[in-house]
Amino acid sequence: MTHTLTAPPTGAGTDTAGTATTAGARTHARAQHGRTTGTMIYVPATTAPERLTSGLAPEQLERLTWAESLAFGRYTHLQLARGTRIRLKDTDGDACVHAVLFRAGDRYERINVADTVKVPWQAYLGAGHPLLSDAGRLMATIVADSSGHHDALTGTTSRAGNEAKYGAGAAHSASPAGRELLTLGALKHGISQREVPPSVSFFQGISVDADGGIRFTGSAAAGSAVELLLHMDVVLVLANTAHPLDPRPDFTGSAVDILAWQAPEDLSRLANGELGLDLAPEHRLALQNTEHDYQARTTA
């Protein structure tokens, strides 16, 4: 679906007669109960439609903790537990999801994009790539990826950049910048703008040429997905908005589907090589640092 910043509820009319009174407004508001839109969060997550949950095993469906279709130009956020597995799906092939992670309860520890690229000796995100904190610990691992078009180098869009390119960049404008949206999501968890680090982005890729120039490579294809496994309790903030190097003059994109389910057994499976991923020494050391810290915090 192409981007729209608002979508009327399925079956909802435009007649708002009677809402001038409190009783009328209440009646109108209650009439919206149970209606759905093309992009929304499902509470509880287990009520999400099959379109969103297709491909999940029955035991994964039972463990769902988050189900949402996030419109282009919007942001979302949630605190998630260690051992959560998150699937982002670029259903229509034109999403661009900018992500930042903070350690829940210790917001000073957050994703460090420089180390996420430098420590594993790999600039391109893909299956098996660690997302590292600024304390040398493992926040998440990319455990599955069918896109290969991601970016850990150029960050997200700024208000000034969007104003120059699209004419507006404020969070509630027609072309909100990623920095503005990520800031709003972080603020919902008491995290200030100055604490929001550079982000990684999924589904719109870049390539570094031999001369050091960065080239935009765009999207892989509709239906591409990436999955993350969380190694600590985190606050995850996502903004689905344009990539800073997207050459198109118009602010355009599509929704992303988000699913999260509890999969604590995958932590040991990853460490034991049972997820089909061979962890590099640097990745394994960060994992050991994280497990040591976790045991120190939880063992009496």
Can you put this structure into words, describing what you see?
The structure is a single chain. The protein has 300 residues and is of the alpha+beta class. It has one domain (36-298). Helices cover 23% and strands 26% of the residues. The chain contains eight helices and 14 strands. The strands form three sheets. The chain has a six-stranded antiparallel sheet with strand order 1-14-3-12-7-6. Strands 2, 4, 5, 8, 9 and 13 form a six-stranded antiparallel sheet that branches. The chain has a two-stranded antiparallel ribbon with strand order 10-11. The relative contact order is 0.22.
Describe the SSE topology:
Layout lengths: L21 H10 L18 H4 L4 H5 L1 E7 L3 E7 L3 E7 L6 E7 L2 E5 L2 H6 L11 E3 L5 E8 L4 E2 L7 H8 L11 H10 L12 E3 L2 E4 L5 E5 L5 E7 L3 E7 L15 E7 L2 H7 L9 H18 L2
Radius of gyration: 20 Å
Q: Which stretches of 5+ consecutive residues score pLDDT under 50?
A: 1-14
**Tally of helical segments:** 8
Number of structural units classed as domains: 1
| End-to-end CA span | 51 Å
Reading side by side through the largest sheet, how are the strands ordered?
1-14-3-12-7-6
Oligomer category:
single chain
Query: What would you call the shape?
Result: globular
Strand-pairing-aware structural class: alpha+beta
Mean of pLDDT: 92
DSSP strand tally: 14
